[in-house]
User: Which sequence fits this backbone?
């Protein structure tokens, strides 16, 4: 049924706020910052079944339909439950200002205030490159600098490319449900400017039963595409994984991989690169992870995307001046990290011997995206810093941090050579509880590994060989190596050394359902059982490391970067991009575009 | 309590759990041994190709050695056999982290809990081709049905 809005809706007086604890939940939430003209879904959830005649929703005292362009529909019993909701999809507010939304069901009332903001009339930046080191924390950065630049007399022999950027801020990463985020709502904050909850992408977390029914907000990718810009998402995780998916996805559940592939396709963003091919294959194809017969490989090709399944194919496709859309899928799972890809050849390198690393992916992406004269927005993710920190594999995480920095260096060089009009930002989506606490020195006396850990002056300096041309030491299992520790762990065997035979698997679920240390490492010489400090049973039993709620660093350069300073919310990063690109230009008319549906 | 203590303390329970396994007759294997390595001719981005031997064994009794992945739902009638022990992200609760070369096992009897870091043998009838589990919607490509689990 349709909710009949009353133009005589009563603007609530101060007295209304003293009604009993209001049960309504209004999306977007209180204190939401909304880019003028950006699309969002408006939803009011009532605590029970309401009388339509009693329901009134006003915005700044006016009927909501007047501000939002159309009336919301009342869903009498949402998902068949004894609760009513008002829903209005795909609206926008063009005029910047404060908007107080008040919803009443006749007995209780609730108000929220949104801040709608505009941007400068003229774009300062033509392009934006956003680097996300997933889970990239200060210790990763310090360790990467030690390994890839070297240190002498207490001073680094060089700086990371991401260190040499003029603007820096601390970003706070909490979500609407918790002080700890996951990569989904963390990346969502960057790509939409709205906060959300764990596991959610491009939506507020409402009570909707279906993960795809929650109130949506528009992504930077959609906003840029609406302005004729090119957009890319480049990662070494599965492309459906949370960070790249945040560019295009609208789902409460990040694991909706099959839907997310469809969302990538519908978004028509121009460059899509990573692993995770099985969700593109129809279910009848051996190796598929789809539950339907949709063949997204064929669909992307029909939509004029070039397909690359190896580094060689990627380079050839990018070098072809006619290529303006590129789908690169290089692994069935995650693309292998730098340590495996370039040195140890573990992981899936024998199965997929011709995978690009992140800098190579990005270089190809820049070639393709820069063919659009309107500029581009590119997200580049070094995803496995996080994955290797979950698996408590410090060396792999550090090598992938160096890889991230190599991509940053390439981007800086590219920007300099291409008009100096690219905003470059480097950040993490969330932190891990990691710290560099010293070194492990095999040559210290005794056999007890714990007493070979050097702290303070005994830590000294590690003896990795000088980095190669790409900034990686070509030997990781040196006799005096970085000791990077994890502050929140399951039970595990501490081996005090790099995992030369493949990524660490710290803990496994026992037959009794308890997360226990993986006995694979029990007999490694010197291994010590560490009793963990994380929950080890029940639905949140941890078999690997977890995220921390620590702030993360953001460094920035290029036009618009001066807005990066001090302590900022992660959602502010979206606003930095929106302002640099003038996505809601003020000072001249902003024509309302036809809403796509 | 340390893990080692827990392990010894858990022995009677574990022995009980393995009782049905031990009951399997230790006669010469009638089933053909198939390994994860010999299952595939190639694993590629655009799909996997089964080995000629695997295709030839379709519908026949096979046994495979691997690890049981922790089930996504405790009430599942099937489990996933993997080449290496996997720690499925308990927080994501999705199949997204699973490798592509998995074999889905449908058991003949009830599923006795096993240690996920313990290698197991599975014997049953090899099935190939896309199949959607009617209860969970989980799609599998290679299955061993009417299976029994055995401790090597």
Assistant:
């Amino acid at each position: 049924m349709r909710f009949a809005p009353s133009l005589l809706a009563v603007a609530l007086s101060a007295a209304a706020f003293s009604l009993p604890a209001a049960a309504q939940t209004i999306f977007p939430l209180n204190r939401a910052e909304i880019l003028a003209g950006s699309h969002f879904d408006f939803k009011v959830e009532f605590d029970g079944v309401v009388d339509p005649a009693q329901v009134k929703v006003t915005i700044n005292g006016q009927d909501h339909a007047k501000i939002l362009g159309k009336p919301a529909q009342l869903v009498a019993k949402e998902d068949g439950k004894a609760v009513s909701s008002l829903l209005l999809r795909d609206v926008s507010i063009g005029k910047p200002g404060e908007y107080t939304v008040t919803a009443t069901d006749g007995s209780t009332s609730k108000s929220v205030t949104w801040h709608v903001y505009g941007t400068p009339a003229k774009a300062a930046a033509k392009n934006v490159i956003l680097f996300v080191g997933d889970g990239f924390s200060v210790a990763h950065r310090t360790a990467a600098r030690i390994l890839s630049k070297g240190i002498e007399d207490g001073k680094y022999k060089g700086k990371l490319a991401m260190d040499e950027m003029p603007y820096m801020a601390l970003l706070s990463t909490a979500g609407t449900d918790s002080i700890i985020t996951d990569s989904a709502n963390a990346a969502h904050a960057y790509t939409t400017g709205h906060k959300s909850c764990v596991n959610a992408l491009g939506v507020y977390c409402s009570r909707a039963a279906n993960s795809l029914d929650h109130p949506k907000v528009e992504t930077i990718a959609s906003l840029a595409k609406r302005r004729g810009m090119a957009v890319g998402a480049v990662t070494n995780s599965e492309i459906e994984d949370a960070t790249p998916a945040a560019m295009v996805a609208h789902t409460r559940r990040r694991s909706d991989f099959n839907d997310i592939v469809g969302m990538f396709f519908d978004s028509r963003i121009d460059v899509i690169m990573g692993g995770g091919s099985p969700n593109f294959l129809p279910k009848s194809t051996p190796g598929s992870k789809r539950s339907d017969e949709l063949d997204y490989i064929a669909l992307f090709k029909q939509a004029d995307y070039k397909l690359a399944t190896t580094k060689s194919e990627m380079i050839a496709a990018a070098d072809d001046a006619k290529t303006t859309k590129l789908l690169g899928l290089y692994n069935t799972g995650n693309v292998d990290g730098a340590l495996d890809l370039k040195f140890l050849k573990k992981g899936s390198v024998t199965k997929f011997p011709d995978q690009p690393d992140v800098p190579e992916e990005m270089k190809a992406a820049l070639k393709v995206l820069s063919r659009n004269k309107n500029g581009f927005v590119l997200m580049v993710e070094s995803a496995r810093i996080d994955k290797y920190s979950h698996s408590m594999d410090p060396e792999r995480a550090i090598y992938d941090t160096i890889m991230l920095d190599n991509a940053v260096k390439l981007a800086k060089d590219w920007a300099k050579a291409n008009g100096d009009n690219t905003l470059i930002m480097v950040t993490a989506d969330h932190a891990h509880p990691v710290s560099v606490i010293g070194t492990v020195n095999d040559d210290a006396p005794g056999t007890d590994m714990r007493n070979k850990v050097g702290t303070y002056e005994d830590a000294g300096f590690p003896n990795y060989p000088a980095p190669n041309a790409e900034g990686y030491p070509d030997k990781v299992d040196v006799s005096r190596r970085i000791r990077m520790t994890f502050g929140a762990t399951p039970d595990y065997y501490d081996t005090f050394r790099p995992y030369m035979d493949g990524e660490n698997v710290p803990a496994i679920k026992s037959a009794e359902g308890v997360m226990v240390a993986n006995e694979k490492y029990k007999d490694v010489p010197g291994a010590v059982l560490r009793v963990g400090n994380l929950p080890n049973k029940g639905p949140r039993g941890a078999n690997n490391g977890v995220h921390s709620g620590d702030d993360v660093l953001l460094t920035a350069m290029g036009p618009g970067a001066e807005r990066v300073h001090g302590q900022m919310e992660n959602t502010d990063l979206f606003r930095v991009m929106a302002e640099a690109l003038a996505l809601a230009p003020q000072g001249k008319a902003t024509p309302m575009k036809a809403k796509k549906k | 309590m340390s893990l080692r203590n827990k392990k010894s303390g858990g022995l009677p329970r574990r022995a009980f759990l393995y009782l049905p396994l031990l009951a399997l007759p230790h006669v010469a294997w009638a089933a053909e041994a198939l390994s994860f390595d010999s299952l595939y001719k190639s694993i590629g981005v655009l799909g996997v190709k089964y080995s000629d031997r695997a295709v030839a064994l379709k519908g026949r009794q096979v046994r495979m050695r691997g690890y049981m992945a922790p089930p996504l739902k405790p009430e599942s009638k099937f489990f996933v056999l993997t080449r290496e022990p996997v720690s499925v992200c308990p927080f994501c609760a999705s199949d997204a982290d699973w490798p592509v070369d998995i074999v889905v096992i449908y058991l003949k009897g009830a599923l006795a809990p096993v240690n996920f870091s313990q290698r197991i043998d599975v014997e049953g009838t090899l099935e190939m081709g896309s199949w959607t589990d009617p209860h969970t919607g989980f799609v599998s490509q290679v299955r061993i049905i009417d299976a029994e689990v055995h401790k090597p």
